[in-house]
Amino acid sequence: MNRVALVTMLAALLFASPVFAWDGTDENGNSVTIEDGNLVRVGQSITYHNDADGNDHEATIDAINADGGEVEIELTDDDTGYSHTLTMEQK
Q1: pLDDT at 16
Q2: N or C: less crowded end of the chain, CB within 10 Å?
């Protein structure tokens, strides 16, 4: 029970604070970076950079799942409505 409480508290701290240039990949293996100053929480809109097209994208976070050394962020592109999954390095 104590381990569950600790993991929950650590996850809350991780997702409640702004992210500073968080690196990962998209579902196609392309490098992505969540830009500085984004609050990574479900329901929040963030800006991320995709190296595949060299552009910044705005997206709304639908779900956050932490597992092992990675964090999966499911989001929907604000312009296209396309759903993406970003796999980020756990900090």
Answers
A1: 52
A2: N
Q: Write the pLDDT tens digit of every residue in 43-55.
A: 999 999 999 999 9
CA 8 – CA 2 distance, rounded (Å): 10
Give how many domains the chain has, as a whole number. Answer: 1
Q: Percent helix, strand and coil across the chain, each rounded to 5?
A: 15, 50, 35
Three-state SS at 12: helix
Tell whether pTM > 0.90: no
Residues 25 and 43: their CA atoms lie apart, in Å, by: 21
Cα 32 from chain centre: 10
Instruction: Give the domain range for residue 18.
Output: 2-89
> pLDDT tens across 21-44, in order?
799 999 999 999 998 899 999 999
